[in-house]
Amino acid sequence: MAIRLDVPARVKPLLQGIGRIAADRGLRAYAVGGCVRDWLLAITKTTDVDVAVEGSALDVARATALVRDASLEVHPQFGTATLRIRTPRAAILRVDFATCRKETYAKPAAYPTVTPGTLRDDLFRRDFTINAIAFEISGTRFGTLTDPFRGQRDLRAKRLRVLHERSFLDDPSRILRGIRFAQRFGLRWERRTARALRQALAAGALGWLNPGRLRKELARMAEEPDPRACVNALVALLNEAR
After folding, report:
1. What φ, ψ does residue 161 adopt, rounded to 5°?
2. Per-10-residue mean pLDDT for the chain, 242 residues long?
3. Are 132 and 151 in contact (CB under 8 A)?
4. Which residue in 100, 98, 135, 105 sits closest to 117, CA to CA?
């Protein structure tokens, strides 16, 4: 039996509209990542929504912008677009559109090489299983969850798990993101993930990040509800890896 997710009323009509636009073009669209994770945790105040499209996300984004009379920023070289919509309560809702893609890394910490892919490919490229959950927004399957890497199970177990053992080496910024998620949601590192984390830190993986990416992740850490706990967790991990 397909599992369905209740979507907050504030964003449900918008996602239904995007789903209809995608379906009219013979495409399938999904809400993915952090918004799905938050809604599974009954966190409904999320103002950023990620939409992945099997096909041209730009076509869907442009059509949505026209229908909603919303501002649209397009990045054709990446197959992505950002839509900003003012809600009735004057809040700004941000929707990031992306064509489902596959990523490969020529070397550790490099920017990935991107090619078109399936929804499963798109979920597999993500940082942790809890962020690799999607639900369909197209047609009659609206709200149907796709969870190929058992992220819901990890959420229930309060467990933080990477999707493959090279994850931290491919993108060391996932170390800092993982610390943020662990502190924000009270998660523990899964055993194999913790081992991969220690190995990456011992190899000096954080030093492979360019200064801009490192600053961005540290700035996000400073915006967490308890930034001190995040910093303490980072220091403890670095000391453990020595």
Report:
1. -135, 130
2. 69 93 95 94 88 95 93 88 78 89 84 89 97 91 92 97 96 97 98 96 94 94 96 94 80
3. yes
4. 100
Tell whether pTM > 0.85.
yes
What are the respective helix, strand and coil percentages of the chain, to the nearest 5?
A: 45, 20, 35
CATH class of 158-241: mainly alpha
Of the CA atoms within 13 Å of residue 68, those in its CB half-sphere come to: 25
DSSP alpha helix (H) spans, 157-210: 167-170, 173-185, 191-202
Q: Classify domain 12-154 at the CATH topology level.
A: Beta Polymerase; domain 2 (3.30.460)
* pLDDT at residue 89, as a whole number: 61
Q: For residue 8, count other CB atoms closer than 10 A to its CB.
A: 15
The domain locations on the chain are: 12-154, 158-241
* 97 vs 61: CA distance, rounded Å: 6
Instruction: Give whole-number Cα distances, 169 to 92, 103, 108, 134, in Å.
Output: 35, 14, 5, 25
∠231-232-234 over CA atoms, to 5°? 65
* Contact call for residues 117 and 99 (beta carbons, < 8 A): no
Contact 150, 133 (CB under 8 A): no
**The tokens of 235 are what?**
């220091």
Tokens 């009270």 belong to 186
pLDDT of residue 172: 96
Q: Which of 70, 122, 67 is CA-nearest to residue 99?
A: 122
